Amino acid sequence: MTESEAPEGRRLHRQRVFKGASILTGVNNSEIKCIIRNMHKDGAELKVSIDSRIPPEFLLYVPVDGIAYESVVRWRKEDRIGVQFTGTKPKPSWHYG
Question: What is the fold, at CATH topology level, of the domain defined by 19-90?
Answer without folding.
Answer: Thrombin, subunit H (2.40.10)
